[in-house]
Structure to design on (429 residues):
């Protein structure tokens, strides 16, 4: 496959941008080879600068629930940008956006728009610290909550992929208040709570993790976590930047049947534009400036252009709850195809899937926690990734990520992907 134009652009990009990319996971570092420069997307596919077309399963790392450039989002953008893209003053569409989020997520009483998932999670933690007057937080090894200093300790996603789960540049001071527990291990949380009585402001978790590959909380664990937070007066924050409006209309909190005190969002709620949000109980959110003393701000927060795209996406979700049945059908079809291939090849690689978010791990047996996940053969994943690319299927360029299906992935796309999956595994095994 000719990728010469991407090679030229990548060489040029590295002269001006660290690693030639504006976000590390795009650099293909863990799978090797040259990152493909994409020039346009349409529906379930996008095309690189050498006009190679791919069925896209990253969907911009989650935002494209409806595929690339769905008409209702492009039309909303066209109508909006002619009136001005940002005013730095309140606009009516910000109320519509907040209202629809409150309507769709029962645990949200008040919500604040920001510009990324990172901003959402760091602001939620600050709100919890301001509300409780406590300083420590608990996060889980392998979970990724964006790149705020105090999260980059044993983090997932790119931090895990590049083997720097604890990033240089994060000071001992900012790391000191971050305690690490083990995902799906309630005892590891209880131990930290007992050892830090009355000092823990919040526990932040990806209730269905997507940054160490896909791993769901067990029922016992997540319900135990809710009870522990109630008993200890700890704010429970669900980081649903990836799972919000992805795994169900009500997100992971609907799938798991557990109500957090706060939730963070991103990705899908921006319809592909930079939007994040954090929200939850009124008594916590009323701590946020200007109504409360906890400061948080953003020049472009809630700007009308991003709100237009995000609102169009959420309106589509609100008006068409049936899309989640269709997403489930497509994802189940693909999962069955993959599992049948694995059987034919005599491999029982772990496959975890919740709704239209899934991951196949290059390790045999079940993957139920971080330790299981990191037993995966990442080198083999890299070879598989490139084989799939050569078959016109674009997956996450790293084992510890998720694969996303959109409402516009056709049966033809899925059949082509299942075939490519079989050929690729046969070639690398
Ligand atoms: P952003 O700041 O990248 O918008 O969101 C950070 C974030 C927070 N919480 C969760 C659960 C997330 O998955 C993310 C971002 N996800 C990664 C993909 N695993 C973004 C891809 C990238 O870093 O380029």
């Amino acid at each position: 496959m000719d990728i010469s134009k991407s090679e030229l652009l990548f060489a040029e990009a590295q002269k001006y941008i660290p690693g030639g990319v504006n976000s590390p996971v795009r650099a293909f570092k863990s799978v090797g080879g040259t990152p493909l420069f994409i020039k346009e997307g349409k529906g379930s596919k996008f095309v690189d600068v050498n006009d190679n077309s791919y069925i896209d399963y990253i969907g911009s790392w989650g935002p494209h629930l409806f595929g690339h450039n769905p008409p209702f989002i492009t039309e909303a953008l066209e109508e909006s940008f002619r009136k001005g893209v940002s005013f730095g003053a309140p606009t009516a569409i910000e109320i519509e956006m907040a209202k629809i989020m409150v309507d769709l997520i029962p645990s949200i009483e008040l919500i604040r728009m920001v510009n990324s998932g990172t901003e959402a999670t760091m602001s939620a933690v600050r709100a919890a610290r301001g509300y409780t007057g406590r300083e420590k937080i608990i996060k889980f090894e392998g979970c990724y909550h964006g790149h705020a200093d105090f999260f980059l300790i044993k983090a997932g996603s790119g931090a895990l992929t590049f083997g720097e789960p604890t990033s240089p540049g994060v000071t001992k001071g900012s790391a000191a208040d971050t305690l690490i527990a083990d995902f799906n291990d309630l005892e590891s949380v209880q131990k930290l709570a007992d050892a830090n009585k009355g000092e823990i402001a919040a526990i932040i978790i990806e209730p269905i993790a997507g940054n160490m590959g896909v791993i769901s909380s067990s029922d016992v664990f997540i319900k135990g976590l809710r009870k522990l937070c109630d008993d200890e007066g700890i704010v429970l924050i669900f980081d649903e930047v990836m799972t919000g409006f992805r795994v169900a209309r009500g997100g992971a909190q609907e799938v798991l049947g557990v109500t957090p005190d706060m939730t963070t969002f991103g990705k899908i709620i921006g319809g592909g534009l930079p939007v994040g949000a954090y929200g939850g109980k009124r008594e916590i959110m009323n701590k946020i400036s200007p109504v409360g003393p906890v400061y948080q701000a953003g020049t472009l927060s809630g700007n009308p252009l991003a709100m237009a795209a995000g609102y169009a996406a959420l309106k589509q979700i609100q008006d068409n709850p049936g899309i989640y049945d269709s997403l489930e059908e497509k994802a189940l079809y693909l999962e069955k195809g993959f599992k049948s291939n694995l059987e034919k090849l005599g491999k029982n690689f772990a496959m975890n899937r919740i709704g239209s978010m899934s991951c196949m791990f290059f390790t045999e047996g079940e993957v139920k926690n971080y330790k299981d996940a990191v037993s995966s053969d990442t080198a083999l994943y890299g070879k598989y990734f490139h084989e799939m690319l050569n078959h016109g299927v674009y997956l996450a360029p790293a084992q510890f990520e998720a694969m996303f299906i959109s409402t516009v992935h056709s049966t033809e796309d899925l059949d082509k992907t299942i075939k490519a999956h079989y050929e690729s595994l046969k070639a690398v095994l």
Q: What stands out?
A: Residues 23, 25, 61, 116-118, 121, 144-146, 157-158, 206, 210-211, 239, 241-242, 266, 276, 401 surround KE4 (CB under 6 Å). The longest helix spans residues 323-344. Residues 91 and 109 are 20 Å apart (CA to CA). Residues 4-69+322-428 form a domain with the Aspartate Aminotransferase, domain 1 fold (CATH 3.90.1150.10).
